[in-house]
Amino acid sequence: MRRVNFDLDALRTFVAGADLGSFARAADQVGRSASAVSAQLRKLEEQAGMPLLQKSGRGLVLTAAGETMLGYARRMLRMNDEALLALAGSALEGKVRLGLQEDFSDHLLPDVLGKFSRGHRGVQIEVTVGRNADLHDAMRDGRLDLALAWHTRGPTPHMDILGSYPLHWIGPADASLLAAGRPSPQDGPLSLVSIEAPCRLRSAATDALDTAAIPWRIVYASPSLSGVWAAVAAGLGIGVRTGFGLPRSLVLLAPEEHGLPALPRVELALHRSHEQLAPAAARLRDLIVEHIMQDAREPQAA
User: Fold this and answer.
1) Is residue 213 over pLDDT 50?
2) Pick from 40, 34, 45, 39: which is nearest to 10 by CA?
3) Residues 26-40: pLDDT tens digits?
4) What whole-number distance in Å separates Cα of residue 199 and Cα of residue 194?
5) Has domain 8-87 been given CATH number 3.20.20.190?
6) Mean pLDDT, to the nearest integer, of 39-48?
7) pLDDT single digits (tens) 132-169
8) Contact 26/20 with Cβ under 8 angstroms?
9) Choices 1.10.3720.10, 3.40.50.1110, 3.40.190.10, 3.20.20.140: CATH for 168-263
């Protein structure tokens, strides 16, 4: 078998196109023209010795070989990036205090913090997972260097908006349990499961229901998001969230299919303690932003 060294730049474009579902969008992300991306993909197929993509409508989809290549491409890029991170950050030392909204703790902790820790052995990370209000207070009091939180208050002095995401109605994946939380009008008000007040997302849900003249009642309020997930999965009622970090026991509900009103969007912000962060905190900030922009995609409503 001939030895082939796959082009890492071409692999990065290939993975970006597969993740985004569009190689036109991938061109924008990797900073290349559409013709340059096409040339990269052709080169990658030549190196592989077989088609990795095929036309589907006006776009491209992965072939069976492309699906196999995608898994290996992710691993090669991860090793490449970790090697670069380790070499570039070997001299970094100190401590970074990070606050995370609960929606992001399950995948951001192992993905981003795992990569950061392997590349920066001399940096200690302290993580606080909590509600938005608590994270805002900790930033104000100087107890955190970075905080990833839903932007539900006024702006902080040093804040980057990472995106705007729609709120969704959330129900149990087991359809037989959904009726308990969405009774017909004659059976009584809509049963809601929510984070304890005050909660901006809870207020957005009740405001939308009031505007639509749909009666409601809070049947379960939890101080933690995990408690909300468990109560919704058990069929106690329906909840409201963005969909990030959604467990498999839950699904997003399409409003028009369940007689529910549309919900607004909410912005995601990364707060910094200072305009100029210490080198370790600045590096962690860059990794978080990269992860959110590329990997934190929401599931679709059913």
Assistant:
1) yes
2) 40
3) 888 788 888 898 999
4) 8
5) no
6) 92
7) 888 888 888 889 999 998 887 666 778 888 888 899 99
8) yes
9) 3.40.190.10
Domain boundaries, the chain: 8-87, 92-164+267-295, 168-263
Q: What is the 3-state secondary structure (H, E, C) of the chain?
A: CCCCCCCHHHHHHHHHHHHHCCHHHHHHHHCCCHHHHHHHHHHHHHHHCCCCEEEECCEEEECHHHHHHHHHHHHHHHHHHHHHHHHHCCCCCEEEEEEEEHHHHHHHHHHHHHHHHHHCCCEEEEEEEECHHHHHHHHHCCCCCEEEEECCCCCCCCEEEEEEEECEEEEECCHHHHHHHCCCHHHCCEEEEEECCCCHHHHHHHHHHHHCCCCEEEEEEECCHHHHHHHHHCCCCEEEECCCCCCCCEEEECHHHHCCCCCCEEEEEEEECCCCCCHHHHHHHHHHHHHHHHHCCCCCCC
For residue 142, give the amino acid letter. Answer: G
Does the pTM exceed 0.70?
no
Summarize the confidence of residues 200-225 as an average pLDDT.
92
d(CA 182, CA 204): 18
Contact present, 47 and 7 (Cβ < 8 Å):
yes
Q: Name the CATH superfamily, with its identifier, for domain 92-164+267-295.
A: Periplasmic binding protein-like II (3.40.190.10)
